[in-house]
Write the structure tokens for this entry.
Amino acid sequence: TALRWLSATYLITMIGVMSLISISLIRFDHRTMVKPSRDMIDVINAFSHDPTTARPIPDSLRHVPNFAAAGKAIEELQQNTLLALRQRERLADIGEAVAKISHDIRNALSSATLMTEALLSSPDKRVRKSAPYVVQSLEQAVELCQSMLDFLSEQPVAKQERVDMTRLAEDLSK
């Protein structure tokens, strides 16, 4: 009976020790692999849904060596994307301003072109002789404004692409 009791105690002790080791390993794995992976996927998904707002990089990515480089890469990606979006917004604003200015200049030039009809029928020979050059220059300026407006009104079609976020996270963690 003493041997059975010793064997049972040994078995229970070993099961307890193994359980503690297993729990420790699971917690370690969760802290060093599972949580950083989930946090990385969450940050990437959140940024992909709204790329106008950078998300802070979780501590689990910063402090786990295997994920620190991925966290830094995500942070740089967010910064570069936000910078590119700001530049595009600025260019769009500039384009809109140029379109308004071109429209106003084109209207003024068109009015001036209509007024040159009077130059063509002027009694002064020198004025009539130079009038076609003035008309031609005004027409060229109107065409230039119109081509600028045409260029600014063209909208490139955005190309959408699906990204497997799990696979991307796995590639980043390697």
